TrEMBL record:
Gene name of the record: LRP5
Entry-linked InterPro entries: 6-blade_b-propeller_TolB-like, Cueball_EGF_LRP_Nidogen, EGF, LDL_receptor-like_sf, LDLR_class-A_CS, LDLR_classB_rpt, LDrepeatLR_classA_rpt
Protein name per Swiss-Prot or TrEMBL: Low-density lipoprotein receptor-related protein 5
Compartments where found: Endoplasmic reticulum; Membrane
Organism: Ophiophagus hannah (King cobra)
Pfam family, one: Ldl_recept_b
Length: 1259
């Protein structure tokens, strides 16, 4: 084979190892010599490597090329790390694969974010998109410049391995069965084979280059292959979970470990440093191409980057003067008007059904509508920078035009019957025309004159003209069929259109006069445009684009044929966007929209905004209605004749059930239904139901159907807690009356619905109504009237009453089919009727003047009114300033002062401002100030030894009274316990320096203790030091002689014997019970534990709740059900509470991670459980008892190894489900990555082995 090095100089640093392994390791690149037996890795000195993924090498110039997913760039540097350059930075999303064509000097890469395969020259110029269709998750890519092929893997929903020519043509699927995550790909040019590594099937397989002869090379111990390469006789790969680089002989299948115990392994390239094998005609003078040269099995092909056109010599690329652009279903194409070349698809991703089309020549962008996605999008002419500018409130947008002077975008929507305008980026959207429109279709603008034109396809088709601000509309042309694709000849001031009913192309002057037929023998004309002296049109029957003279339709020429359903067509050229108006300069000094009109312009605002004529700026509305549909929230001003309702641009709405609004920060809040991703079903009984905002305290009250509670969060997402819950309560609809400190809610108890009132902390609860209710679904308060309104969905009735529940009145009870929401705005009461799909209103005081406000609104779910806030009145509220200095809940009292309160799981402390934990220790216990230990026996207080973590039990110790003795370390005991022969001070100081004199009938022990003489030598030690049972033989003999004279002969020998026997019997019984009963019942860390050994009661106090999970910081949503009110074991863990000792001095496990401590009053007294004295060796845990859970406890679970999105279960033989194959996976970091080998799986999940059980038989 031929050696290809070209005329380039080989850098001097190449004089080292010839065969190397190049490694991308997330934040660095490494070079490993394959010529040396120790495989030492050298870190290249390259700055700012953030997340390197793919890597390749050019042996001709000696450059390493790599992709960086974090900075979204493609970079290169020499093999020693010098000469670092950034080549590509735009339109890079997740570049997972890279490959160097060392012959043609091109660089290829795959991008799983844009779903493209692209190419540039090796210096980053002449970028071109090769493949952008039918790619899901393209990853590894390899090239065969000698044969002219490229190969790549795709690990998407339908994984596959494909091939194509190097120019992206002749695409072919090689493998699409039995694949999971084909991450690695390698070419064997000597054997003409293709190898790949699959991270899901855990195999390395091989096929011939034509896709045949598939074989498995190895399938053992391959947890997660990622990087993959081949050199000589070996295949090399990186493994994420084993943290290793390994290799296997491609024939013998023998394996070696190159590097072990190295995390964050990414791409891999085995290469020769200076040897480049093979050549093709592109190697000489770039194949004669001006830009890109691609070698294919048939020939060398020249190509141009997007924006350039290939001349007829098929070698030279030029910038075209003008070209046609047209939409065809899921693609946008371009055709040069200066070259006889085939059309080129502009590489746009995600297009479904493109319809209307226009462009902005100054910005080199195209704009199009998509009637399937219901969006208006834009992108640069090379396909980059794609973005949706209008995504909401569109139904069938079939007409669109760009105002290139005012930089505005106009569109006509047949579905909504509206003509709207916005800035080119989608901002400041305004409805211009919506009255008396009948299916508006095509749209054309003349910005220099200030007019817009459109066609209507309704009952009386026509062509209409109006000012560009939507005013002064007049009909220009009637007696016309379905006029389509209206276009303007700006030079000759003529209108052109196609008529779908008559199959003609017609023209008129700009007033609709001098009407002429340009062509009338057309099968099915549809799209139309004009340029220079010609008109261009598309024909659906002929599947073609044709051209003819614009004045008479002669000299017809076919530009392109074999085209299906071309919707719109235009000529991209600067002459089509010429002229001037006042909006072209500084937007006419308008704050939002500058709209051209004849001989001038008018400043405009987004819908519902108000223009200040002096400053030309716009102000937001202060009073309006919000109403929600299933997946949208809209705003309307009922009596505004200038603008209709508009949909707010809020992403991700699904199953919206209710809405509320905070006028202070202009945020909308809504509860939402969470879909079950696995089975696409939903359970409405597990979701939030309704919500209401207290703007003064910045809190959100909401009801939860899963827990049947009323909950409170701060508006920043911080959880406050539950304020109302009951065994039979089912609170649903809720409204907060923060001005008076109350909340009103419906209680949907079975067969007995109620409307209740309570203070904002759930106290002062009272039932307002229990009769005349079936299913009240919505409540609203009017503070100005002092009224409560509600609507009953089953009774189909709207009622009101005073805020105290008095003066109940029915306002409406006829022709209401399915009422869902209720609100008050101004003098009117509004409600929505879901079945009739409309919003209605009546006067709120008497129910008169019922009026339909809006109709034909599907899936209505909620409505809410916003009125302007009186800031002086707001500031006077006692809770508006720093929440009334309350730590949790602030409630306004009748005298205008704040009252602080707490959720049900907390209590108000003595300062009457702060909420804290309820008292958890019994009266006989001392409560530690902080730390994991909560309660200790009161006897341990001030005993000279600190049991509390914060040593608070030894602080502020009292001075003993006159009737007490103070031990050396501060402990106080009764004075009569001093020198009584028993140690009562913890430090034993009460029995020091004693000179005890025993009474005559007492025996003095060696330690000074006094006992009765008859207790001496009775076979039971009564002295602490046991001295009363010493020398008993002599003593007993003496006593027997002394007593024989008084008592007569008898024997005392049987007493000690019986005592010894009883002692042994009791000790043996205790041992049997512990070993055979207690220890067998305790089955280990996860097994049962006898309840009588648990130091805590089996019930929970009524004011105690388990802490729930909440989201803090930015308010991203509140969930209820299992995700909010989490279950918690009463013992605080799976193993139950341990036996009482100084390491577990509370009723709850001290290892609980909950911030809310759950400590319960003990069922047994502490000193009955602690049989011995305190341990005197400080800093060392007391020895475990045979049945202590201190040793048997284990909280080592896999939960600590959960990533944010995935489980990694290496103890299972199956694959991790679902561990992401993407290199952006959570578990790829060094701190959380997988174990280096399966042999260490146990230590991976358990930082320390569990201690041996002390309850084994051998104990």
């Amino acid at each position: 084979k031929e050696l290809f090095t070209g005329s380039l100089l080989i850098p001097t640093f190449f004089l080292g190892a010839e065969e190397v392994l190049l490694l991308a390791r997330r934040t660095d690149l490494r070079r490993i010599s394959l010529d040396m037996p120790d495989f030492t890795d050298v870190i290249l000195q390259i700055d700012n490597i953030r997340h390197a993924i793919a890597i390749d090498y050019d042996p001709v110039e000696g450059y390493i090329y790599w992709t960086d997913d974090d900075v979204r760039a493609i970079r290169r540097a020499f093999l020693d790390g010098s000469g670092a350059q950034t080549l590509v930075t735009t339109e890079i999303n997740h570049p997972d694969g890279i490959a160097v064509d060392w012959v043609a000097r091109n660089l290829y890469w795959t991008d799983t974010g844009t779903d493209r395969i692209e190419v540039t020259r090796l210096n980053g110029t002449s970028r071109k998109i090769l493949i952008s269709e039918n790619l899901d998750e393209p990853r590894a890519i390899v090239l065969n410049p000698v044969m002219g092929y490229m190969y790549w893997t795709d690990w998407g929903e339908n994984p596959k391995i494909e091939s194509a020519y190097l120019d992206g043509t002749e695409r072919k699927v090689l493998v699409n069965t039995s694949l999971g995550w084909p991450n690695g790909l390698a070419l064997d040019l000597e054997e003409n084979k293709l190898y790949w590594g699959d991270a899901k099937t855990d195999k390395i397989e091989v096929i011939s280059l034509d896709g045949t002869m598939r074989k498995t090379l190895i399938e053992d111990k391959l947890p997660h292959i990622f990087g993959f390469t081949l050199l000589g006789e070996y295949i090399y790969w990186t493994d994420w979970q084993r943290r290793s680089i390994e290799r296997v002989h491609k024939k013998a299948a023998s394996r070696d470990i190159i590097i072990d115990q190295l995390p964050d392994l990414m791409g891999l390239k085995a290469t020769s440093v200076t040897r480049a094998e093979g050549t093709n005609p592109c190697a000489e003078n770039n194949g004669g191409c001006s830009h890109l040269c691609f070698f294919t099995p048939q020939e060398c092909r020249c190509a141009c980057p997007i924006g350039l056109e290939l001349l007829s010599d098929m070698r030279t690329c030029i910038i075209p003067e003008a070209f046609l652009v047209f939409t065809s279903r899921a693609a946008v194409h371009r055709i040069s008007l200066g070259a006889s070349n085939n059309d080129v698809a502009i590489p746009l991703t995600g297009v479904k059904e493109a319809s209307a089309l226009d462009f902005d020549v100054s910005d080199n962008r195209i704009y199009w509508t998509d009637i399937s996605l219901k969006t208006i999008s834009r992108a640069f002419m090379n396909g980059s920078g794609l973005e949706h500018v209008i995504e909401f409130g569109l139904d069938y947008p079939e007409g669109m035009a760009v105002d290139w002077m005012g930089k505005n975008l106009y569109w006509a929507d047949t579905g909504t019957n509206r003509i709207e305008v916005a800035r080119l980026d989608g901002l400041f959207r305004q409805v211009l025309v919506w009255k008396d429109l009948d299916n508006p279709r095509s749209l054309a603008l003349d910005p220099s004159k200030g007019y817009m034109y459109w066609t209507e396809w309704g009952g009386k088709p026509k062509i209409v003209r109006a000012y560009m601000d939507g005013t002064n509309s007049i009909m220009l042309v009637d007696k016309v069929g379905r006029a389509n694709d209206l276009t303007i000849d700006y030079k000759d001031q003529r209108l052109y259109w196609t008529d779908l009913d008559t199959s003609m192309i017609e023209s008129s002057n700009m007033l609709g006069q001098e009407r002429e037929i340009i062509a009338d023998d057309l099968p099915h004309p549809f799209g139309l445009t004009q340029y220079s002296d010609f008109i261009y049109w598309t024909d659906w029957n002929l599947h073609s684009i044709e051209r003819a003279d614009k004045t008479n339709g002669r000299n017809r020429t076919i530009i392109q044929n074999r085209l299906d359903f071309v919707m719109d067509i235009l000529v991209f050229h600067s002459s089509r966007q010429d002229g001037f108006n006042e909006c072209a300069q500084n937007n006419g000094h308008c704050g939002q929209l500058c709209l051209a009109i004849p001989n001038g312009y008018r400043c405009g605002c987004a819908s519902h905004y108000t223009l200040d004529p002096k400053t030309r700026n716009c102000s937001s509305p202060s009073s309006f209605l919000l109403f929600s549909q299933r997946s949208a929230i809209s705003r309307m001003i009922p009596d505004d004749q200038q603008s209709p309702d508009i949909i707010l641009p809020i992403h991700g709405l699904r199953n919206v059930k209710a809405i509320d609004y905070n006028p202070l920060d202009a945020f909308i809040y809504w509860p939402f239904t969470v879909m079950n991703i696995r089975n696409q079903s939903q359970n409405p009984e597990k979701q939030p139901h309704d919500l209401s905002i207290d703007i003064f305290s910045h809190t959100l009250y909401w009801t939860c159907e899963a827990t049947n509670t009323i909950n409170v969060h701060r508006l920043n997402g911080e959880q406050i807690g539950v304020v109302l819950r009951g065994d039979h309560d089912k609170p649903r609809a809720i409204v907060v009356n923060a001005e008076r400190g109350y909340m009103y809610f419906t209680n949907m108890q079975e067969r007995a619905p109620k409307i209740e009132r309570a203070a904002l902390d759930g106290t002062e609860r009272e039932v307002l109504f229990t009769t005349g209710l079936l299913r009240p679904v919505a409540l609203v308060i009017d503070n100005k009237l002092g009224k409560l309104f509600w609507v009953d969905a089953d009774l189909k009735r709207i009622e009101s009453c005073d805020l105290s529940g008095a003066n109940r009145v029915t306002l409406q009870d006829s022709n209401i089919l399915q009422p869902m929401g209720l609100t008050v705005l101004g003098n009117h009461l509004y409600w929505i009727d879901r079945q009739q799909q409309m919003i209605e209103r009546v006067e709120k005081t008497n129910g008169y003047k019922r009026t339909r406000i809006q109709g034909r609104i599907a899936h209505l779910t909620g409505i809410h009114a916003i009125e302007d806030i009186d800031m002086e009145e707001f500031s006077s509220h006692p809770c508006s300033r720093d929440n009334g200095k309350c730590s949790h809940l602030c409630i306004a009292k009748g005298d205008g002062t704040p009252r602080c309160s707490c959720p049900v799981h907390l209590v108000l402390l003595q300062d009457l401002l702060t909420c804290g934990e309820p008292p958890t220790c019994s009266p006989d216990q001392f409560t530690c100030a902080t730390g994991e230990i909560d309660c200790i026996p009161m006897a341990w207080r001030c005993d000279g030894f600190s049991e509390c973590d914060d040593q608070s039990d030894e602080e502020n110790c009292p001075i003993c009274s006159a009737t007490q003795f103070q031990c050396e370390k501060g402990q106080c005991i009764d004075a009569h316990l001093r020198c009584n022969g028993e140690v009562d001070c913890q430090d034993k100081s009460d029995e020091s320096y004693c000179e005890t004199i025993c009474l005559q009938n007492h025996f003095q022990c060696a330690n000074g203790q006094c006992i009765l003489k008859k207790q001496q030598c009775d076979s039971f030690p009564d002295c602490i030091d046991g001295s009363d049972e010493l020398f008993c033989d002599k003593t007993l003999f003496t006593e027997k002689i002394k007593s024989s004279d008084d008592s007569g002969p008898h024997s005392n020998a049987i007493g000690p014997v019986i005592g010894i026997i009883l002692t042994l019997f009791v000790m043996g019984g205790m041992y049997f019970v512990c070993q055979r009963v207690v220890c067998q019942r305790y089955a280990g860390p996860n097994g049962p534990f006898p309840h009588e050994y648990v130091s805590g009661t089996p019930h929970v106090p009524l004011n105690f709740i388990a802490p729930g999970s909440s989201q803090h910081g930015t308010f991203t949503g509140i969930s209820c059900g299992k995700s909010m009110i989490s279950s918690m074991s009463l013992m605080g863990g799976s193993s139950g509470a341990p036996l009482y000792d100084r390491n577990h001095v509370t009723g709850a496990s001290s290892s609980s991670s909950s911030s809310t401590k759950a400590t319960f009053y003990p069922q047994l007294e502490w000193w009955n459980l602690r049989t011995g004295k305190p341990y005197l060796i400080r800093g060392i845990a007391p020895p475990t008892t045979p049945c202590s859970t201190d040793v048997c406890d284990s909280d080592y679970t896999t939960s600590r190894w959960k990533a944010n999105k995935y489980y990694i279960d290496l103890n299972s033989d199956s694959d991790p489900y679902p561990p992401p194959p993407t290199p952006r996976s959570q578990y790829m970091s060094a701190e959380e990555s997988c174990p280096p080998s399966p042999a260490t799986e146990r230590s991976y999940f358990h930082l320390y082995p569990p201690p041996p059980s002390p309850c084994t038989d051998s104990s």
